[in-house]
Protein backbone atom coordinates (compact mmCIF):
# COMPACT_ATOMS: atom_id res chain seq x y z
CA UNK A 1 0.00 0.00 0.00
CA UNK A 2 1.17 3.49 -0.87
CA UNK A 3 -0.06 6.48 1.14
CA UNK A 4 0.67 10.06 0.05
CA UNK A 5 -0.11 12.90 2.46
CA UNK A 6 -1.32 15.77 0.26
CA UNK A 7 -2.24 17.90 3.25
CA UNK A 8 -1.88 17.74 7.01
CA UNK A 9 -1.49 20.45 9.64
CA UNK A 10 2.29 20.35 9.30
CA UNK A 11 4.76 20.14 6.42
CA UNK A 12 8.26 18.68 6.41
CA UNK A 13 9.87 19.80 3.14
CA UNK A 14 10.42 22.94 1.11
CA UNK A 15 8.07 23.85 -1.71
CA UNK A 16 4.89 22.45 -0.17
CA UNK A 17 2.00 24.09 1.67
CA UNK A 18 0.10 23.02 4.77
CA UNK A 19 -3.16 24.05 6.40
CA UNK A 20 -5.36 22.80 9.20
CA UNK A 21 -7.03 19.82 7.59
CA UNK A 22 -6.36 16.47 5.98
CA UNK A 23 -6.08 15.02 2.48
CA UNK A 24 -4.59 11.61 1.70
CA UNK A 25 -4.18 9.50 -1.45
CA UNK A 26 -4.40 5.74 -0.89
CA UNK A 27 -3.15 3.30 -3.53
CA UNK A 28 -3.53 -0.45 -3.19
CA UNK A 29 -3.33 -3.01 -5.98
CA UNK A 30 -4.79 -1.27 -9.04
CA UNK A 31 -7.05 1.12 -7.08
CA UNK A 32 -6.52 4.75 -6.13
CA UNK A 33 -8.71 6.78 -3.78
CA UNK A 34 -8.57 10.26 -2.29
CA UNK A 35 -9.71 10.65 1.31
CA UNK A 36 -10.68 14.22 2.21
CA UNK A 37 -9.66 17.42 0.47
CA UNK A 38 -8.56 19.78 3.25
CA UNK A 39 -10.15 23.23 3.39
CA UNK A 40 -8.85 24.83 0.17
CA UNK A 41 -6.85 24.11 -2.99
CA UNK A 42 -3.68 23.33 -1.02
CA UNK A 43 -4.07 19.60 -1.70
CA UNK A 44 -4.21 20.28 -5.45
CA UNK A 45 -1.10 22.47 -5.39
CA UNK A 46 0.80 19.88 -3.37
CA UNK A 47 -0.35 17.07 -5.67
CA UNK A 48 1.11 18.98 -8.63
CA UNK A 49 4.39 19.59 -6.81
CA UNK A 50 4.64 15.94 -5.78
CA UNK A 51 3.69 14.63 -9.22
CA UNK A 52 0.57 12.92 -7.93
CA UNK A 53 -2.07 12.64 -10.64
CA UNK A 54 -5.67 12.96 -9.46
CA UNK A 55 -7.27 12.49 -12.87
CA UNK A 56 -7.28 8.69 -12.48
CA UNK A 57 -8.94 8.44 -9.06
CA UNK A 58 -11.41 5.60 -8.51
CA UNK A 59 -13.28 7.71 -5.98
CA UNK A 60 -13.23 10.35 -3.26
CA UNK A 61 -14.17 9.51 0.32
CA UNK A 62 -15.16 12.38 2.61
CA UNK A 63 -14.79 11.38 6.24
CA UNK A 64 -17.30 13.91 7.60
CA UNK A 65 -18.85 17.26 6.81
CA UNK A 66 -16.40 19.77 8.30
CA UNK A 67 -14.74 22.48 6.20
CA UNK A 68 -11.19 21.24 6.85
CA UNK A 69 -11.99 17.87 5.27
CA UNK A 70 -14.43 18.80 2.50
CA UNK A 71 -13.65 22.44 1.65
CA UNK A 72 -11.32 21.51 -1.19
CA UNK A 73 -14.14 19.94 -3.19
CA UNK A 74 -15.11 23.28 -4.67
CA UNK A 75 -11.60 23.69 -6.16
CA UNK A 76 -11.70 20.50 -8.22
CA UNK A 77 -11.94 20.97 -11.97
CA UNK A 78 -15.62 21.38 -12.75
CA UNK A 79 -15.05 21.10 -16.49
CA UNK A 80 -14.84 17.33 -16.28
CA UNK A 81 -16.85 14.71 -14.48
CA UNK A 82 -15.38 13.85 -11.10
CA UNK A 83 -15.09 10.28 -9.82
CA UNK A 84 -17.76 9.01 -7.41
CA UNK A 85 -17.84 10.84 -4.08
CA UNK A 86 -18.74 8.73 -1.04
CA UNK A 87 -20.23 10.64 1.86
CA UNK A 88 -22.89 10.32 4.54
CA UNK A 89 -26.05 12.26 3.78
CA UNK A 90 -26.00 13.91 7.20
CA UNK A 91 -22.65 15.52 6.34
CA UNK A 92 -24.61 18.29 4.60
CA UNK A 93 -26.35 19.46 7.77
CA UNK A 94 -25.55 22.96 9.03
CA UNK A 95 -22.60 22.33 11.37
CA UNK A 96 -21.27 24.77 13.95
CA UNK A 97 -18.67 24.88 16.72
CA UNK A 98 -18.55 26.91 19.92
CA UNK A 99 -20.69 27.63 22.94
CA UNK A 100 -24.42 28.16 23.13
CA UNK A 101 -23.79 31.92 23.09
CA UNK A 102 -21.03 32.03 20.50
CA UNK A 103 -21.15 29.59 17.57
CA UNK A 104 -19.33 29.74 14.23
CA UNK A 105 -19.98 27.79 11.06
CA UNK A 106 -17.61 24.89 10.30
CA UNK A 107 -19.64 22.95 7.74
CA UNK A 108 -19.41 22.79 3.98
CA UNK A 109 -20.04 25.72 1.70
CA UNK A 110 -22.76 25.12 -0.85
CA UNK A 111 -24.28 21.77 -1.73
CA UNK A 112 -23.13 18.69 -3.55
CA UNK A 113 -24.96 19.76 -6.74
CA UNK A 114 -22.13 22.21 -7.43
CA UNK A 115 -19.49 19.46 -7.39
CA UNK A 116 -20.48 17.96 -10.76
CA UNK A 117 -19.84 14.56 -9.27
CA UNK A 118 -21.68 11.30 -8.81
CA UNK A 119 -22.41 11.65 -5.09
CA UNK A 120 -23.14 8.32 -3.43
CA UNK A 121 -24.57 8.32 0.08
CA UNK A 122 -22.95 5.52 2.00
CA UNK A 123 -25.02 4.64 5.07
CA UNK A 124 -24.02 1.71 7.28
CA UNK A 125 -21.19 -0.20 5.53
CA UNK A 126 -20.47 -0.43 1.83
CA UNK A 127 -17.79 -2.06 -0.30
CA UNK A 128 -17.00 0.60 -2.92
CA UNK A 129 -14.37 -1.48 -4.72
CA UNK A 130 -12.94 -4.96 -4.08
CA UNK A 131 -11.35 -4.75 -0.63
CA UNK A 132 -12.25 -1.08 -0.06
CA UNK A 133 -14.98 -0.50 2.54
CA UNK A 134 -16.60 2.71 3.73
CA UNK A 135 -18.02 2.16 7.20
CA UNK A 136 -20.43 4.43 9.06
CA UNK A 137 -22.77 4.05 12.02
CA UNK A 138 -19.96 4.11 14.60
CA UNK A 139 -21.45 3.45 18.05
CA UNK A 140 -20.08 4.72 21.34
CA UNK A 141 -18.71 1.60 23.06
CA UNK A 142 -15.84 2.61 25.32
CA UNK A 143 -16.39 4.32 28.65
CA UNK A 144 -13.85 7.07 27.91
CA UNK A 145 -14.78 8.19 24.39
CA UNK A 146 -17.81 10.44 24.57
CA UNK A 147 -19.40 12.84 22.12
CA UNK A 148 -17.16 15.90 21.97
CA UNK A 149 -18.75 19.00 23.45
CA UNK A 150 -19.08 22.24 21.54
CA UNK A 151 -20.40 20.94 18.22
CA UNK A 152 -23.87 21.90 17.01
CA UNK A 153 -26.32 21.46 14.16
CA UNK A 154 -28.61 24.28 13.11
CA UNK A 155 -32.11 23.32 12.00
CA UNK A 156 -34.57 25.70 10.42
CA UNK A 157 -38.32 25.21 10.39
CA UNK A 158 -41.42 27.27 9.92
CA UNK A 159 -41.10 28.91 13.32
CA UNK A 160 -37.42 29.84 13.13
CA UNK A 161 -34.03 28.38 14.02
CA UNK A 162 -33.32 25.70 16.57
CA UNK A 163 -30.12 24.03 17.72
CA UNK A 164 -29.18 20.49 18.68
CA UNK A 165 -25.95 18.79 19.66
CA UNK A 166 -24.02 17.30 16.76
CA UNK A 167 -23.78 13.55 17.38
CA UNK A 168 -21.29 13.20 14.49
CA UNK A 169 -23.53 10.72 12.72
CA UNK A 170 -21.86 11.61 9.41
CA UNK A 171 -18.48 10.25 10.44
CA UNK A 172 -17.18 7.32 8.41
CA UNK A 173 -14.08 5.14 8.11
CA UNK A 174 -12.22 3.85 5.08
CA UNK A 175 -11.08 0.25 5.61
CA UNK A 176 -8.75 -1.32 3.05
CA UNK A 177 -8.16 -5.07 3.02
CA UNK A 178 -4.52 -5.90 2.34
CA UNK A 179 -2.34 -9.01 2.64
CA UNK A 180 -1.04 -7.68 5.97
CA UNK A 181 -4.50 -6.95 7.35
CA UNK A 182 -6.93 -4.05 7.58
CA UNK A 183 -5.57 -0.56 6.97
CA UNK A 184 -7.94 1.98 8.52
CA UNK A 185 -8.27 5.68 7.72
CA UNK A 186 -10.24 8.14 9.88
CA UNK A 187 -10.52 11.87 9.38
CA UNK A 188 -11.12 13.13 12.92
CA UNK A 189 -12.43 10.24 15.04
CA UNK A 190 -14.93 12.51 16.77
CA UNK A 191 -16.66 9.37 18.05
CA UNK A 192 -13.34 8.02 19.31
CA UNK A 193 -10.53 6.28 17.47
CA UNK A 194 -10.97 3.12 19.55
CA UNK A 195 -14.71 3.11 18.85
CA UNK A 196 -13.89 3.43 15.16
CA UNK A 197 -11.49 0.50 15.22
CA UNK A 198 -14.04 -1.64 17.06
CA UNK A 199 -16.64 -0.77 14.45
CA UNK A 200 -14.33 -1.76 11.59
CA UNK A 201 -13.55 -5.06 13.31
CA UNK A 202 -17.28 -5.66 13.70
CA UNK A 203 -17.88 -5.21 9.97
CA UNK A 204 -14.75 -7.14 8.90
CA UNK A 205 -14.14 -9.62 11.75
CA UNK A 206 -11.94 -12.05 9.84
CA UNK A 207 -9.04 -9.64 9.28
CA UNK A 208 -6.62 -8.29 11.88
CA UNK A 209 -6.03 -4.54 11.96
CA UNK A 210 -2.58 -3.78 10.55
CA UNK A 211 -2.52 0.03 10.51
CA UNK A 212 -4.53 3.05 11.61
CA UNK A 213 -4.02 6.50 10.09
CA UNK A 214 -6.28 8.89 11.95
CA UNK A 215 -6.91 12.30 13.25
CA UNK A 216 -7.71 11.17 16.80
CA UNK A 217 -9.28 14.36 18.16
CA UNK A 218 -7.12 14.37 21.28
CA UNK A 219 -5.66 17.88 20.99
CA UNK A 220 -7.81 19.20 23.85
CA UNK A 221 -8.28 15.88 25.66
CA UNK A 222 -7.40 15.39 29.30
CA UNK A 223 -4.65 13.11 30.54
CA UNK A 224 -7.06 10.31 31.42
CA UNK A 225 -8.59 10.24 27.93
CA UNK A 226 -5.14 10.10 26.32
CA UNK A 227 -3.93 7.43 28.75
CA UNK A 228 -7.03 5.28 28.20
CA UNK A 229 -6.70 5.64 24.43
CA UNK A 230 -3.05 4.56 24.47
CA UNK A 231 -3.83 1.62 26.77
CA UNK A 232 -6.62 0.42 24.48
CA UNK A 233 -4.47 0.78 21.37
CA UNK A 234 -1.69 -1.16 23.06
CA UNK A 235 -4.13 -3.96 23.97
CA UNK A 236 -5.18 -4.17 20.31
CA UNK A 237 -1.55 -4.82 19.26
CA UNK A 238 -1.80 -2.80 16.03
CA UNK A 239 1.56 -2.91 14.18
CA UNK A 240 1.41 0.62 12.69
CA UNK A 241 -0.15 3.77 14.16
CA UNK A 242 -0.14 7.05 12.23
CA UNK A 243 -1.60 9.92 14.32
CA UNK A 244 -2.28 13.04 12.25
CA UNK A 245 -4.20 16.32 12.14
CA UNK A 246 -6.34 16.82 15.29
CA UNK A 247 -4.50 14.22 17.37
CA UNK A 248 -2.42 17.04 18.84
CA UNK A 249 1.29 17.18 19.62
CA UNK A 250 0.92 16.17 23.26
CA UNK A 251 -1.05 12.98 22.52
CA UNK A 252 1.10 12.14 19.48
CA UNK A 253 4.25 12.57 21.57
CA UNK A 254 2.95 10.21 24.21
CA UNK A 255 2.06 7.68 21.52
CA UNK A 256 5.55 7.93 20.08
CA UNK A 257 6.98 7.19 23.54
CA UNK A 258 4.55 4.32 24.11
CA UNK A 259 4.83 2.62 20.72
CA UNK A 260 8.32 3.57 19.50
CA UNK A 261 8.96 2.82 15.84
CA UNK A 262 5.41 1.49 15.43
CA UNK A 263 4.15 5.08 15.67
CA UNK A 264 4.72 7.26 12.60
CA UNK A 265 4.05 11.01 12.50
CA UNK A 266 3.08 11.76 8.89
CA UNK A 267 3.34 15.31 7.57
CA UNK A 268 2.38 16.97 4.30
CA UNK A 269 4.44 15.58 1.45
CA UNK A 270 5.40 12.30 3.03
CA UNK A 271 4.92 9.04 1.14
CA UNK A 272 4.46 5.89 3.21
CA UNK A 273 4.81 2.33 1.93
CA UNK A 274 3.03 -0.18 4.17
Describe it.
The chain is an alpha/beta fold. It has one domain (2-273): Ribonuclease Z/Hydroxyacylglutathione hydrolase-like (Metallo-beta-lactamase, Chain A, 4-Layer Sandwich), CATH 3.60.15. Helix content is 18%, strand content 32%. It contains five helices and 17 strands. It has helices at residues 42-50, 67-70, 193-203, 223-236, 249-259; strands at residues 2-7, 23-28, 31-35, 59-61, 82-87, 94-98, 103-105, 117-121, 125-129, 132-135, 151-157, 160-165, 173-178, 181-186, 209-215, 240-244, 271-273. It has a seven-stranded mixed beta sheet. The chain has a six-stranded mixed beta sheet with strand order 9-10-13-14-15-16. A four-stranded antiparallel beta sheet has the order 7-6-11-12, with no helix packed on it. A hairpin with a 4-residue loop joins β6 (94-98) and β7. The protein is globular. The chain starts with a strand and ends with a strand.
CATH hierarchy class name: Alpha Beta
Rg for CA atoms: 18 Å
Total DSSP E strands: 17
In the CATH hierarchy, what is the architecture at level 2?
4-Layer Sandwich
**Order of strands across the widest beta sheet?**
8-5-4-3-2-1-17
Query: Which structural class fits the helix and strand makeup?
Result: alpha/beta
**What's the quaternary structure here?**
single chain
Q: Which blocks of ≥5 consecutive residues have pLDDT under 50? A: none
User: How much of the residues is beta strand, in percent?
Assistant: 25-35%
Global mean pLDDT: 94
The SSE order reads: EEEHEHEEEEEEEEEEHEHEHE
Domain Metallo-beta-lactamase: 21-134
Pfam family, one: Lactamase_B
Organism: Blautia hominis
Protein name: MBL fold metallo-hydrolase
Amino acid sequence: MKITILNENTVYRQGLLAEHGLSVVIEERDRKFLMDTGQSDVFLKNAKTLGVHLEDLDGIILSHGHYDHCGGMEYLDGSRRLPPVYIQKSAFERKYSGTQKDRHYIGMSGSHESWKADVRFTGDAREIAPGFWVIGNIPYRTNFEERPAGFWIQDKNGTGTCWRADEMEDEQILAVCTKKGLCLFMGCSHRGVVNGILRAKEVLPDMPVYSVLAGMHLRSAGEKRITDTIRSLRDMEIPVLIPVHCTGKRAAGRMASAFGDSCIWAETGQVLEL
